């Protein structure tokens, strides 16, 4: 999911790709953000890239 965010996809586009609703995508990203300590999409992507989770 974070790779799709890094690719610049919207919640709606991510949902269509993963067969989820945009609301479910928003919920998952919110949980990911809490675990990473940020709610900012750009910071989530940056942290995931630095950790080598996404490219």
Summarize the SSE layout with pairings.
Layout: H1 2-6, H2 11-18, H3 22-36, H4 41-50
Walk me through the structure.
With about 55 residues, this protein is mainly α. The chain has a single domain, classed as Arc Repressor Mutant, subunit A (Orthogonal Bundle), CATH 1.10.10.10. Helix content is about 70%, strand content about 0%. It is globular. It holds the Pfam family GerE. This is DNA-binding NarL/FixJ family response regulator. Keywords: DNA-binding, Transcription, Transcription regulation. One of its GO terms (molecular function) is DNA binding. One of its GO terms (biological process) is regulation of DNA-templated transcription.
Which features does this protein show?
55 residues; DNA binding; 4 helices; mainly alpha
The largest sheet, given as strand count, sense and whether it forms a barrel, is: none
Radius of gyration: 10 Å
N-to-C CA distance: 12 Å
Give the SSE string. Answer: HHHH
Poorly predicted tracts of residues: none
How many strand elements? 0
Mean pLDDT: 96
CATH topology grouping: Arc Repressor Mutant, subunit A
Indicate the multimeric state: single chain
- Described by the principal axes of the CA atoms, the overall outline is globular
Number of helices: 4
Give the count of structural domains. Answer: 1
CATH superfamily: Winged helix-like DNA-binding domain superfamily/Winged helix DNA-binding domain
Strand residues, percent: under 5%
- Counting helices, strands and paired strands, the structural category is mainly alpha
The share of residues in helices is: 55-70%
What is the level 1 CATH name? Mainly Alpha
Instruction: Report the CATH architecture.
Output: Orthogonal Bundle
């Amino acid at each position: 999911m974070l790779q799709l965010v890094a690719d610049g996809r919207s919640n709606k586009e991510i949902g269509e790709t993963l067969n989820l609703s945009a609301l479910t995508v928003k919920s998952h990203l919110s949980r990911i953000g809490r675990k990473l300590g940020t709610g900012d999409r750009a910071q989530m992507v940056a942290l995931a890239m630095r950790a080598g989770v996404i490219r």
